[in-house]
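ugh ok fine here u go
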Amino acid sequence: RGYLDDAKFAATFVRSLAANKSQSKRQVQLALRKKGISSEIIDQVIANTTEYSEVAALKKLIAKKSNHYDDQQKLIAYLVKRGFRYDDIKNTLDTEV
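structure:
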């Protein structure tokens, strides 16, 4: 009857995270795994959800945290710890500055 549908739940969860939080793809995957969603469904949902963009989440987080970190290396370290890829961080910072 569709009462328990992991794919629908995962898609709703990813859309909610995209709207409310700036999380990396790794953080989203980990959160869904903790909720018992299979890796196949997670990969499929992240690939098909148009509302979620890791680059947009990264830009939003950089805008939010750039005032807190006066040293760019500390900001980069913070973003890497949050699960963003170093290359994506550097490219985004280079285009933003």
